[in-house]
C-alpha cells in the first residue's frame, strides 16, 4: 500500500457575513453564536482536536476579532475568577486557549468557499489537510473526521463527507455521483455538482461540511473559474480532482455518514440544535425537559 503523508492541519473557513442571522450578526460573528453556553466555532475546533489535528488555521475577515479573542488568554477575566476561587469557570475560560495552536489568515474579499480555502495555501504547504465548515456540527459520539483521515491514509487523494438528504433538499448542497467500493461506508466519487436543481442532481448524497483535501487542490483552485453564485467553489475544484489520477492529486472518495449532524446555518435548525444540546446536558436536562414538555402541551391546546 502506498504511504501517504499524514494529516496534521485543519482549515476552518470563518469569513462569512452571517446575513441569515441579522441583526444578531451585525457586530458579532455568526461563528460566535452560542450553542447553549459555548460558541459554535469551539465545537468545530474541538472536533478537529479530537481527530488529532492540533494546528488550526482560521480563515477570517472583517469583524471577526472576537473569534481570535475567544481562543486567546483573557488575563483580566482569569485574574478575577482566580481571586474569587472560582475554579470551574476559570477552567471554562482557559479551555479554548489550550485546545490547539491557532493561526489566522484573512480572506480580503468574499469570493466563495474555494477562495477561502485558497487563502490557506501558504500555511498548509504541501500536506493534505482537513477542512471543517462552521455551520455543521458533528456529534462527538460519531467521529466522522477520524474515519475520513483513515480513508485518506488508505486511498490517498481527497475525501468528502456525504449524507443522504431528501431529494428536495439536495439543491442546498454539493451533490455527488458515487460508485461502491469494498468498504460499506466508503464510495468513489466520480462527479460533483454544486447546488444542483433537484431534477439534475447526480444522487441524494450531499456533501456536508467536512473534507480531507489533497494539497493539489491549491493549483486547481487557482485555475477554477467562478461557478454557482459567481463564487469560486470548492466543489468545482474537487470535481476536477475526482477526474485526476493519483500522480496529479486525485482521486476523491466519500465517507457515507449516518451519524448525528447539527446544522447551525439557518434560524430554524440553529434553534433545533440548541434544544438538542440542552436536552443532552446533565446540568440542564432535568429542569429543561419537563419545562419543554409542559410548554409544548400548552402550545398544542
Ligand atoms: C457549502 C458547500 C456545499 C456543501 C455545504 C455543506 O455550501 O459549497 O457544497 O454541501 O457547504 O454545508 P454553503 O452551505 O456554505 O452555501
Describe the structure.
This is UTP--glucose-1-phosphate uridylyltransferase. Belongs to the UDPGP type 2 family. It is an enzyme of class 2 (transferase). It catalyses: alpha-D-glucose 1-phosphate + UTP + H(+) = UDP-alpha-D-glucose + diphosphate. α3 (75-84) runs antiparallel to α4. The protein is built from 11 helices and 13 strands. The protein has helices at 40-50, 65-70, 75-84, 87-99, 113-118, 121-124, 144-155, 217-223, 234-242, 267-279, 285-299, and strands spanning 9-13, 34-35, 38-39, 55-60, 101-106, 129-132, 136-138, 158-164, 174-180, 186-194, 205-213, 252-256, 261-263. The protein is globular, with a radius of gyration of 20 Å. It has 301 residues and is an alpha/beta fold. A hairpin with a 2-residue loop joins β2 and β3 (38-39). The mean pLDDT is 96. The structure holds 1-O-phosphono-alpha-D-glucopyranose. 1-O-phosphono-alpha-D-glucopyranose (G1P) binds at residues 113, 133, 135-136, 173-174, 194, 206-209, 233-235, 265. 1-O-phosphono-alpha-D-glucopyranose binds at residues 113, 133, 135-136, 173-174, 194, 206-209, 233-235, 265.
- The name of the CATH architecture is Alpha-Beta Complex
Count of domains: 1
- For the residues shown, what is the average pLDDT? 96
In angstroms, what is the radius of gyration?
20 Å
- What gross morphology would you assign? globular
Q: What is the rounded distance between the termini? A: 63 Å
Q: What compounds are bound to the protein? A: 1-O-phosphono-alpha-D-glucopyranose
Summarize the main sheet: 9 strands, mixed
Number of strands: 13
- Low-pLDDT parts are none
CATH C-level: Alpha Beta
By secondary-structure content and strand pairing, the structural class works out as alpha/beta
What is the CATH fold-level name? Spore Coat Polysaccharide Biosynthesis Protein SpsA, Chain A
One letter per element, helices H and strands E, the order comes to EEEHEHHHEHHEEHEEEEHHEEHH
Number of helices: 11
Within CATH, the superfamily carries the name Spore Coat Polysaccharide Biosynthesis Protein SpsA, Chain A
| Strand arrangement, major sheet | 5-4-1-6-11-8-12-10-9
Portion in strands: 15-25%
Organism: Microbispora siamensis
EC number: 2.7.7.9
Domain Nucleotidyl transferase: 9-270
Keywords: Nucleotidyltransferase, Transferase
Amino acid at each position: 500500500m502506498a504511504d501517504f503523508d499524514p494529516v496534521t492541519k485543519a482549515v476552518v473557513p470563518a469569513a462569512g457575513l452571517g446575513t441569515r442571522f441579522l441583526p444578531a450578526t451585525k457586530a458579532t460573528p455568526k461563528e460566535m453564536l452560542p450553542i447553549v453556553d459555548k460558541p459554535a466555532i469551539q465545537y468545530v475546533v474541538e472536533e478537529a482536536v479530537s481527530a488529532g489535528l492540533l494546528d488550526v488555521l482560521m480563515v477570517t475577515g472583517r469583524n471577526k476579532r472576537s473569534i481570535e479573542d475567544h481562543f486567546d488568554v483573557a488575563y483580566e477575566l482569569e485574574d478575577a475568577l482566580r481571586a474569587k476561587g472560582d475554579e470551574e469557570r476559570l477552567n471554562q475560560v482557559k479551555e479554548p486557549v489550550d485546545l490547539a495552536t491557532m493561526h489566522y489568515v484573512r480572506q480580503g474579499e468574499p469570493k466563495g468557499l474555494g477562495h477561502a480555502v485558497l487563502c490557506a495555501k501558504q500555511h498548509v504547504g504541501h500536506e493534505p489537510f482537513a477542512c471543517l465548515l462552521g455551520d455543521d456540527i458533528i456529534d462527538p459520539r460519531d467521529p466522522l473526521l477520524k474515519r475520513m483521515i483513515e480513508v485518506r491514509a488508505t486511498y490517498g487523494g481527497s475525501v468528502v463527507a456525504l449524507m443522504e438528504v431528501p431529494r428536495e433538499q439536495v439543491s442546498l448542497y454539493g451533490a455527488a455521483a458515487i460508485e461502491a467500493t469494498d468498504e460499506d461506508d466508503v464510495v468513489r466519487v466520480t462527479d460533483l455538482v454544486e447546488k444542483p436543481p433537484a431534477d439534475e442532481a447526480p444522487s441524494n448524497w450531499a456533501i456536508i461540511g467536512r473534507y480531507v483535501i489533497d494539497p493539489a487542490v491549491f493549483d486547481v483552485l487557482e485555475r477554477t473559474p467562478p461557478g454557482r453564485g459567481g463564487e469560486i467553489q470548492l466543489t468545482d475544484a474537487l470535481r476536477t480532482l475526482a477526474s485526476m489520477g493519483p500522480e496529479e492529486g486525485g482521486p476523491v472518495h466519500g465517507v457515507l455518514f449516518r451519524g448525528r449532524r447539527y446544522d447551525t446555518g439557518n434560524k430554524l435548525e440553529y434553534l433545533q440544535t440548541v434544544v438538542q444540546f440542552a436536552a443532552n446536558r446533565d446540568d440542564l436536562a432535568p429542569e429543561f425537559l419537563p419545562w419543554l414538555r409542559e410548554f409544548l402541551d400548552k402550545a398544542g391546546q
